[in-house]
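Incident review: delayed structure delivery

Summary: a single-chain prediction request sat in the queue longer than the usual turnaround. Root cause was a stuck worker, restarted by the on-call engineer. No data loss occurred. The affected request and its eventual output are reproduced below so the record is complete for anyone auditing the incident later.

Affected input:
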Amino acid sequence: TQSTWAPEALAAIVDAANAVLALLDADAIARVLGRPSLATGADAAAVAARGEANEAKSRLVDALVRRAKAAAQLAVQNPAAAADAEAAFVAASEWTDKTNKSFAEVALMREAQQGRAALALADARKTLASEAPPKASSFTLVAALCEQLGWSCWQRHFEAAQAAAVRSEPPRFS
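Output delivered after worker restart:
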């Protein structure tokens, strides 16, 4: 997807995410969360440590995904930043997967940027199916991917669906 953010703003997001990541100890989080579930009657300190690790993991995943998204958008604007975007994607994918809603858009952007429109379309369709109600921007993205693949009939269908989503009406197949 194209970003409306200025490169300076995207670079600031990457820098902010890096600052958050510098404060978190990913190895310590992994060690705590790698433990088996605590049995009933476990001591309160162990339960508290696991809760803190879960909160830290949430912050870690959020920072990694934000950094990956901003880096991907920067790569669209400046192809020289593609290596940084790929590194940010790989780092984020170590802690989450494509089915995670917050990461799905980043994975989709990566597939589209690497010329894999069919894989991006498959990811976009999953995202679209998981949205209730579907976002107009998701329909626009799917339509653009269909256009890239040369599927004009489906492109028109998703463009109509996008227009209907804006009007909150069911789409008509054209």
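Verification: The chain is about 75% helix and 0% strand.
Action items: add queue-age alerting; document worker restart procedure.
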